[in-house]
């Protein structure tokens, strides 16, 4: 009978099917994301280890304390040289790479001279054979603007530069997740006499791996190093990467579970309406002998069939869509991967949630008396229970009270989590608040619906008809509003969290790095004329300020904290980077005021306003110290302005020795820091001696991670809103079906199609507006509390900022979506003929 019902009216179950499909797709997509991303990261980390039989690893030992030949010494001591086919020391170093078109941070890895230990091949060119040759990927070559035979300058952290030639293009199809821009592969000779981090060993007979590893381990114990089989190291790497993606997976899982809750509300509302429409059919079954258990089985069987079909379709979409998304992101290089147990669990969860949502409506079906088969009375869920209206509201009071208690408890937990910077407590608070809303909001909306109806009545006939429809179906309207509110609250919470988080990160970086970005030479040599000429062309900086510098010959001993450089900045830069009138005054009692780092002042035992004597260009310089963090941007210095320099007794002896070795940039408010970083990096290409410093690099990394999380989260929340709007469209469509007689009578009395169409649209907009208002009211503070709990304890610069731009875009979009959701039900309503009510 359940299958007959589905075949007879499949369109009525479309909302249920779509909600199940989307929920299953999100759950399965999350599992695929977790599995595929973990496999990809493991593939990146483990790729160099695949051809390796045994790895000699310093483990916890300090590599710098070992001899450069430590790994080969272990082999000799273990007396296994006869079993070794090939070995290769493994090196890695971080450098700055300068190409023709760009510069960026790069990791340089050693590649074995023996082909049996190489883990990738070449697309073109040759393997590096000397210290001045490298191999790069096609992607890296394109970004740096070089080809085979072209040159790249690699500069290490100590300022040493290596000009290397691209000898080949490898077939690496991914970028290792190392936090750097490029991956470069070089001959071991590139690393000179550096100590290798590991030794890779290839054996003549792979069956000897265990015995050789045991002998190497025994020989290595005295040196504090270990020997591990290659397959074991790959397993450890994979396990480590499996834990690395846990946090992102948890965030996605939370969004997915909330989307599933929205789907359950849509499913429950739909089944409650379907049961109301089948009142006479169910009563007829009861009349001919069907027991309540039979009716219960009928409803649950229908839900189970729909759930299984929707889950199967959703699983296919989730697997295909999840893997396709990972491929587009360039993160599917480990191949498709998903935990079978998790996959099966998510499918069972979707089916169980659907059946559970239908179970909540079963009692309405089992309470239909057989007598209703005779009078054909429609039993709508909110009932025409006019007699029991007071009783219905009274029965709702305990649920409202309990929901309100949960909501208050959730808010309290959120406040405690935010105030104490405990994210787990805040997360529990958010879930308790969600439970409170699910319990209380539908009934609270039902109680307030008369007020809404009064407001709508001023909108003419269409408004009065909409008010009557909403009042007749208050519980269903409350469920629809709750579903919309959930979707909007999640989006607004994420938006406010992102906006507040970005504002806090920027405020913290501005505090710790007053200089947004700096371009400087580590050896204090003069920047190239080309760099100085084009510095003003950086469009995302509100200003660029050339800084003249000179080495300090002598300063009071501060050990490691002793400043070595005197920075002379333009007077106008003082207003931008150090807003302090005392320092801007320039002199105090005839002595120029200089900025000094507070840590250095503490080390040498001086306090604010004390004098400090330096020797610069052989000239003693006495200044009055003023504490400032600015002196650490980008390296420890003492800072004076051009005006203060002119006030020095022997300024003419210092002036000729000054060199413009630095440019400071101040970012414009609200700009994309990644874009600013790109502009400054392109400027730095003009001078291989230049290094980029300031807060731009750190902010770029943090905001890139934040943006990736936002894109994933917004994509998932879009599905949640789709489910909510599906429930809205379903509510309107079922309302039209239920009111066929009423609408046909209105048409017979002369009501125009436009009035009926407007009525449906007013219903949709009313439900959406109320849901959006509640969603914003809950979501905005929820997001701020969440981000404060997560990062509030990490900085004293927590900055609350509401996402006005996103809200300004969200409200019109959601209202337009509601208008679209009402389009098909409104069209169906206007097609009802006047005679239909007389012949039904």
Automatic annotation (TrEMBL):
<comment type="similarity">
    <text>Belongs to the ABC-4 integral membrane protein family.</text>
</comment>
<feature type="transmembrane region" description="Helical">
    <location>
        <begin position="804"/>
        <end position="824"/>
    </location>
</feature>
<feature type="transmembrane region" description="Helical">
    <location>
        <begin position="397"/>
        <end position="415"/>
    </location>
</feature>
<dbReference type="GO" id="GO:0005886">
    <property type="term" value="C:plasma membrane"/>
</dbReference>
<feature type="transmembrane region" description="Helical">
    <location>
        <begin position="708"/>
        <end position="729"/>
    </location>
</feature>
<dbReference type="InterPro" id="IPR050250">
    <property type="entry name" value="Macrolide_Exporter_MacB"/>
</dbReference>
<keyword id="KW-1133">Transmembrane helix</keyword>
<dbReference type="Pfam" id="PF02687">
    <property type="entry name" value="FtsX"/>
</dbReference>
<feature type="transmembrane region" description="Helical">
    <location>
        <begin position="760"/>
        <end position="784"/>
    </location>
</feature>
<feature type="domain" description="ABC3 transporter permease C-terminal">
    <location>
        <begin position="715"/>
        <end position="833"/>
    </location>
</feature>
<feature type="transmembrane region" description="Helical">
    <location>
        <begin position="295"/>
        <end position="321"/>
    </location>
</feature>
<protein>
    <submittedName>
        <fullName>FtsX-like permease family protein</fullName>
    </submittedName>
</protein>
<keyword id="KW-0812">Transmembrane</keyword>
<keyword id="KW-0472">Membrane</keyword>
<dbReference type="GO" id="GO:0022857">
    <property type="term" value="F:transmembrane transporter activity"/>
</dbReference>
<feature type="domain" description="ABC3 transporter permease C-terminal">
    <location>
        <begin position="254"/>
        <end position="370"/>
    </location>
</feature>
<keyword id="KW-1003">Cell membrane</keyword>
<dbReference type="InterPro" id="IPR003838">
    <property type="entry name" value="ABC3_permease_C"/>
</dbReference>
<feature type="transmembrane region" description="Helical">
    <location>
        <begin position="341"/>
        <end position="362"/>
    </location>
</feature>
<feature type="transmembrane region" description="Helical">
    <location>
        <begin position="250"/>
        <end position="274"/>
    </location>
</feature>
<feature type="transmembrane region" description="Helical">
    <location>
        <begin position="421"/>
        <end position="441"/>
    </location>
</feature>
